[in-house]
What does this fold into?
Amino acid sequence: MQPIAAVERFLERLLERPTARLFHSPLQPIQIQRRIERTMESERRSAGSRTLVPDHFRVHLAPADVAALGAQAEGLAASLADEALAFARSHDYVLEYAPTVELVADRTVPAAEVRVSVARPSAPVSPSVPAAGVPARGNGLDETRAYEIPVTPAPAAALREQRPDGGGRRIPIDGSVLTIGRSTDNQLVLDDRRVSRHHARLQARRGMLVLTDLDSANGSRVNGVTVSEVALGVGDRIELGTTVFVVEASPRS
It folds into this structure.
């Protein structure tokens, strides 16, 4: 390996070390997404004036990491496939089918690491799916719709506020956007001087519950780690200023 390439790989591994949990796993969705994007780049090939890229990716994870994802694995795979399509279109790459992502438990992969391989799916997503960037034939919606994204249910969850006196409210989460902050125009208003006026946003995204920090002054922490955006799981502890919430599961109605 050339010295420059070796340095690049070292920096790549350093930057991809996990900084917060994905549900109960040390992996982050962005870590897996970047691996898929680099695999797409490395496997691209020219076909005349077009650049063809793979459309089916196998994400190899340690068995313990796959088990930690649990029921969230399906939603994560759908989200990663959606991001792969967006990446291909932003670079004017051509896909034969709508991207698919398969999470594979692989005993040869160390914990918290990701390996991505390319393979053809056992069955095409749809023989009528057009290549990315190529208009579909037909009228009406067929001219703009590449494929229909699978609908994944919003997580049934709630936030339980933990106060030093043992009290605290319970906030149900229905999947819609929940803004959190000190200002009264938030859906969840916190009387906490260490919380920014518009501190964070909580929303369901493709079957996952995602917390996003809105460039707050004091940051958002999940399980003791400062995060900018992270997918949450049951039992995760959210710290906004001095206010603490714990994610709880809720039975579906």
Observations:
- The radius of gyration is 21 Å.
- The chain has a mean pLDDT of 77.
- The first helix runs from residue 3 to 15.
